[in-house]
Model the fold of this input.
Amino acid sequence: MAETSITAIGPLVDTHAHLDDSRMARDLPGVLSRARQAGVTQVVAIGTTAESSQDTVALAQAHRGVVAAIGIQPNHGSEAQPGDWERIVELTDAPKVVAIGETGLDRYWDRTPFSLQQDLFDRHLALAFEHELPVIIHCRQCEADTIAQLERLGRPVSGILHSFTGNWDDAQAFLALGLHLSFAGMVTFRNESLDPLREVAARMPIDRLLVETDSPYLSPHPFRGKTNEPARVALTCSRIAELRGMGAETLALQTTRNARHLFRLDDTETI
Ligand SMILES: [Zn+2]
Done:
């Protein structure tokens, strides 16, 4: 992968990266070294299946500054084999596991029957509550379903609506539930249709705002369409800072404080 020339803007946590994806796993030392040069201090590596969760935990245990989230992503729900959920439950107590997910709902891909997605989502939420861990929520084209399922729990939810793409009203509903909102590269794309998303990033409470790459997906401008990697979280953070009329360093520091608090990260263990 080509060297990037990304200006470091201070400590940053990439709250969502699929480090076990082969596109990054084959050059992880390079990926992490470029992240460090861009100021990234910690990366939350996200599992999507039982096997990927196991790999993600192993990666976290092998690399300083990498922590793990474990779960079965909704689009992988129908591939899950008997025993896979039990593997997730067993991994919950493994060292460096800081969150449950990603879990949630997806009406865009339609790869897993919706009732199975809802069942899995409920199980992940119960597991997160039981272990007092934050939950990482994927929501694609089903904000209303996700809000309804979370509201049925009748209690606040600690965690993240990851790669948020909803509107201002959706944002208010997720924030009222207690969630943080995390923004990926889309906020940097040129499309005017993304102005409402930028408005959320500009106006939402700063103490619930997080940034992520969702690597290897959603690479921010000017790397749109390329394989993404954690270093580029700096570009997303800078763009949001610009939208909020504040310094990029100040926003980096604040989002990092938010992430470290939510995941209870040890700030002395960095990449
Ligand atoms: Zn993801």
User: Anything to note?
Assistant: The first strand starts at residue 12 and ends at 17. The chain has one domain: 12-263.
